[in-house]
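Supplementary Methods S3. Input chains for the assembly prediction are listed below.
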Amino acid sequence: MDADRCLKMLKALSDETRLKIFEMLKGGKLCACKILEGLNITQPTLSHHMKILCDCGLADAERDWKWTHYSINKDALKALTDWLNGENEGKI
Amino acid sequence: MDADRCLKMLKALSDETRLKIFEMLKGGKLCACKILEGLNITQPTLSHHMKILCDCGLADAERDWKWTHYSINKDALKALTDWLNGENEGKI
DNA sequence: TTATAGTATTGACAAATATCTATCTGATGA
DNA sequence: TCATCAGATAGATATTTGTCAATACTATAA
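Predicted structure tokens for the full assembly:
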């Protein structure tokens, strides 16, 4: 885990809508359509946000038939918080 | 610690310059002029960034004669990482 | 009071970005 | 093959924000 990766994750979390999505996903895996229900944004906007969350590694996407299920990548999250807390040793 | 406060902290950390400052301060308390030395920005820009870091609670400012010393507020940092990790119980 | 020095504020501007509409893609089922 | 549907991409726009130069503030020292 380096500062660049950390910065990317922090940028991903530093938007109100994406932080809301993050909170929703903390409760467990969710389909894109379910996430969309809880937010006042359009589908392309959600798609854009999910890409940012996935690209930085904080979220994982899993296609199941026609739906995409998203979940938090707990290892990435832990790497981020460890880095912030100064426990910069190894991993990810 | 609520999501709003968390969002403010994440926004504060989601800028490359401020994350560098954060890293510097993780090594210990620093004078503004020392921070400035390690960054290619002007003094007003640093002042602007320090205000953001202090306003969200992640950094503390301490005036000593004519110099201002900045440090990380470890309680605030822990509250942030706890919140991200889902340990949302109480405090700050 | 006046000069000096470290830090903060203001105002302007350019770059980044969150959002939308419109459209595309890819897979399924008739 | 064609229609349908979930999700992705493209292009445009408005807002946010990082930066600077200029200036103000505040405390000290002469």
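DSSP finds five helices and three strands in chain B. The interface with chain A takes residues 3, 6-7, 10-11, 13-14, 16, 19-20, 23, 26, 77-78, 80-81, 84-86 of chain B (CB under 8 Å).
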